[in-house]
Write a structure and sequence with these properties.
mainly alpha; Hypothetical protein af1432; about 70% helix; about 0% strand; disordered N terminus; binds fe (ii) ion
Length: about 220
């Protein structure tokens, strides 16, 4: 489908920029946003408090593998990145889970991070899990991650508004757990516009701490 292809192309473009131009402030802000959304969605799905706390941790750490990816890519010829970029980008899910395990994190959280790019139709990575083979928590992170990315300004495009982001996700709904996605739409419906402003302020604050211009 054209929309899916466009989304795949966007994902590939995003991956290229993550590899060549990683931005710690954006990654941290994204982690905070995904973590907050995961908690909201987990509440909507009726998860209990302890579960929500661990889900918040997974949401914050879901892309931690990109830090290792950056190290892995460093020193490589840029030409090789353009050929193998998708493969490199896809390493971050396994790398993130392995980092968490090596640091003594809850093994469940590592599993949730490992599978945060799996798709319900089996087209995701790293294991091409399908349907309920994918942990519920990974299905939650998947939806929150995509929404957070689409509604954030990137170097190569502006942020999509919330309704446009949801419409784009509906086009790709085969990737998502429909029960989780419907609950997410309810969460977003209740989300105050103020929260997007708060996210921009968080990015500015983190960028300032890191000594970078966030604009
Ligand atoms: Fe990721």
């Amino acid at each position: 489908m054209q929309n899916g292809t466009q989304t795949d192309r966007r994902a590939a473009d995003a991956g290229r920029l993550v590899l060549i131009q990683p931005d710690l402030a954006i990654e941290l802000t994204h982690g905070i946003c995904v973590s907050n959304l995961c908690v909201r969605l987990g509440e909507e799905l009726g998860l209990h408090e302890d579960h929500l706390y661990r889900l918040a941790q997974a949401g914050m750490m879901h892309d931690i593998g990109k830090l290792r990816l950056k190290e892995y890519v460093r020193g490589r010829e840029q030409e090789s990145l353009t050929i193998e970029e998708i493969r490199y980008v896809r390493l971050h899910a396994d790398l993130g889970a392995d980092i968490l395990l090596s640091q003594g994190w809850d093994p469940d959280i590592a599993v949730w991070v490992r599978h945060h790019h799996e798709n319900m139709d089996g087209s995701g990575y790293p294991r091409r899990l399908k349907g309920e083979e994918i942990p519920l928590e990974s299905r939650i992170i998947r939806v929150c991650d995509v929404f957070a990315a689409l509604t954030t300004d990137r170097v190569y495009r502006g942020a999509f508004d919330m309704n446009t982001a949801i419409d784009m996700m509906i086009d790709d709904s085969r990737y998502y757990d429909i029960h989780v996605f419907l609950a997410f739409q309810k969460v977003i419906h209740d989300l105050e516009p103020e929260e997007l402003k708060t996210r921009a302020e968080t990015l500015a604050a983190i960028s300032s701490i890191l000594g970078k211009d966030s604009t």
